[in-house]
Amino acid sequence: MSKGAKDDPNKEWKKKVQKGNAVGKSNDNDRHVVPNTDRGGWDVVKEGHQRASAHAPTQKAAEKRAKEIVEKTGRGNGDVIIHRKNGQIRDSDSGSRNESPKKDKKH
């Protein structure tokens, strides 16, 4: 059963992603990994857009797909912003190919 807009706990951050101001500095190629409250799983959403670019059953799979999209569409320039189920930003990862290995502590 679908939740109404009033019942959606993620309403505020969804507005921010759709307007393109979910994070302070944005890139045209940024992608957000956000929970899909209607059908479950996780969506990959381009900042400033409503429609999902991709859907995955797990957050990890959605994050992987978001990185692939950033790499393919923006020649590696763009960030993947990962949200918690409550909409808060949990983590972000730069898709920059030129990023120094010293700066990228995650990989």
What does this structure look like?
By secondary structure, this protein is of the alpha+beta class. It has one domain (5-94). Helices cover 23% and strands 24% of the residues. The chain has a 5-stranded mixed beta sheet, with helices on one face. The longest helix has 16 residues, at 59-74. The model is unreliable at 1-5 (pLDDT under 50).
Characteristic terms for this protein:
107 residues; alpha+beta; five-stranded mixed β-sheet; 2 helices; 23% helix; disordered N terminus
Summary?
This protein has 2 helices and 5 strands. By secondary structure, it is an alpha+beta fold. It has a 5-stranded mixed sheet with strand order 3-2-1-4-5, covered by helices on one side.
Describe how the helices and strands are arranged:
Layout: H1 11-19, E1 31-35, E2 42-46, E3 52-56, H2 59-74, E4 79-83, E5 89-94
InterPro entries: DUF2188
Pfam families: DUF2188 (PF09954)
Biased composition (Basic and acidic residues): 1-12, 40-50, 61-74, 88-107
Query: Which structural class matches the secondary elements?
Result: alpha+beta
Tally of separate helices:
2
- Identify the strand order in the major beta sheet: 3-2-1-4-5
Distance between the termini: 39 Å
Q: What percentage of residues falls in helices of 4 or more residues?
A: 10-25%
> Whole-number average pLDDT?
79
Q: Give the beta-strand count.
A: 5
| Uncertain runs | 1-5
Question: Which term fits the overall shape?
Answer: globular
| SSE order, one letter for each helix or strand | HEEEHEE
Q: What is the total number of structural domains?
A: 1
The biggest beta sheet is recorded as: 5 strands, mixed
Roughly what fraction of the amino acids lie in strands?
15-25%
